[in-house]
Amino acid sequence: MRIFDLIYIDGRLAIDLNNINNDLELMAYTGVPEYVPMSGSAPIVGTVQLSDEQFSKIVAEYKNGGECAWCGEIASELRKPHIYDRAPNGGRMCRSCWDHDREMYKGAYGDDIGPFSGEEAKSQ
Ligand SMILES: [Zn+2]
Fold first, then answer.
1. How far is the CA of 6 from the centre of ligand 1 (A)?
2. Which single residue of 32, 63, 87, 97 could bond 69 by disulfide (Cβ 3.0 to 4.6 Å)?
């Protein structure tokens, strides 16, 4: 079991994962993997107990998730874009953008780019 602070930041509750990245942002889990600017003044409203399994799942979301290069939403999983749509800076795509594109290309080209969780997603 690991114990973390539950903090109130930007009007939301987040688990302070007690880890800071190179840009001095705090890993603050809000249900999706987010980083927030370091703020010594974020009030602590409680404590959260995570099992090793729960903690590993969150860490995996930080590795595989992040900000979608298309919609800018923070997602718990991202993947490389499909062949019809390349991000200029090698950005990755969230499930909702993928599903939207999948429908669009099915209709426009009659070509199915496949499900979000395809082989390529697993190799990420
Ligand atoms: Zn997206």
1. 27
2. 87
- Parse the chain into domains and list their residue ranges: 1-64, 65-124
Q: How far is the CA of 88 from the centre of ligand 1 (A)?
A: 15
Least confident residue range of 2-11, 33-42, 100-109: 33-42
42: left (phi over 0), alpha (psi -120 to 50) or beta: beta
The pTM for the full model equals 0.73
How far away, in angstroms, is 67 Cα from ligand 1 center? 8
Distance 100 CA to ligand 1 centre (A): 9
49 close to 1: Cβ distance less than 8 angstroms? yes
